[in-house]
Amino acid sequence: MSTNEATLFDLTPFERADTKDMTPREARKVKVKMKVTEYERRVPERKKKGSAGGKKRPPKKTIAERFAEFDEKNPHVKKMLIALALADKRAGMQRGGMQMYLEQVRYRMRRRTTTSEPFKVSNDFAAHYARCIMRDVPELEGFFELRELKSE
Question: What is the DSSP string of 71-97?
Fold first, then answer.
């Protein structure tokens, strides 16, 4: 007996089924099931490794940590956001949208940021910029609508 063949005793009743009396569709299902069970029997369960090949990665940084790092390296972004918000406030707007201001900064800045972030100015930073700006600029206090952060 070759290594590919199994004895009658190694097969389950489902695998021993005679496919001659079945419709072609039923026979295909039986054959597929036989292949799956044969594979399961031959291949031992593998230990799961992380994508780093078993090495532990450093813990992922929180949004607040990434924001603090980005803001420290790119203070000009915050200055532009403040200038845009102040211009709108002085023009008579009661509320401003940080996401809109971030889009304007992206358009104006294009590729002038210095960071390892995948995006030039991440959308994740909008809530943090709004809080930071309202805290630092008294004239803009209450200008942005705030929601509870998920991280708080």
Answer: HHH-HHHHHHHHHHHHHHHHTT-S---
